[in-house]
Every structure is written in structure tokens, then in C-alpha cells.
Design a protein that fits this description.
Acts as a tumor suppressor; induces growth arrest at G(1)/S checkpoint and apoptosis via RB1-dependent and p53/TP53- and NF-kappa-B-independent mechanisms. Modulates expression of genes involved in the regulation of proliferation, cell cycle and apoptosis. This protein has 79 residues and is mainly alpha-helical. The protein is 51% helix and 0% strand. The mean pLDDT is 80.
């Protein structure tokens, strides 16, 4: 489970509040994960635990996923 030491902090990186920065945030997360999996080659158990955690976070509620924001479209409603 040593592999998870570098994967779990990815889930704690806060999403930007500005919707314009969301694309940059998603690109950073995706590139970090691709680089991590290519360089470190984590074990199967760690990979499954991380992917399960990401899927549970993404589908537990609207706006929780690290890969997309809570706003639909480009503008958020204030209120």
C-alpha cells in the first residue's frame, strides 16, 4: 500500500472556484495520474483502491468529482 502515498493526496487537491480555470485543473490532474502510473507502476490493489475511491467520490454527489466542476455550462448561477 506504499503506492497510495502519492495517489491519495490527488483527491485532496481543491478545485478552483473560477470555472475558467477548471480545464487547467483537469489537465493537471489527468497528466499527473498518467505520469504517475507510467513512472511508478503501482500495484494492482493500489490502483483498484484509488479508482474505486475516485468513482465513489465522483458519483456520490453533484460537484464532488475532481474531473469536472459543479457548474453546468460555462456560467454559474449566483444564488
Amino acid at each position: 500500500m506504499y503506492c497510495l502515498q502519492c495517489l491519495l493526496p490527488v483527491l485532496l487537491i481543491p478545485k478552483p472556484t473560477n470555472p475558467a480555470l477548471m480545464e487547467t485543473h483537469v489537465m493537471f490532474i489527468v497528466l499527473y495520474l498518467i505520469g504517475f502510473f507510467l513512472e511508478r507502476k503501482p500495484c494492482t490493489i493500489c490502483s483498484l483502491v484509488f479508482l474505486t475511491a475516485v468513482s465513489l467520490i465522483c458519483y456520490s454527489g453533484v460537484g464532488n468529482c475532481i474531473f469536472w466542476g459543479s457548474c453546468e455550462g460555462h456560467l454559474c448561477e449566483n444564488g
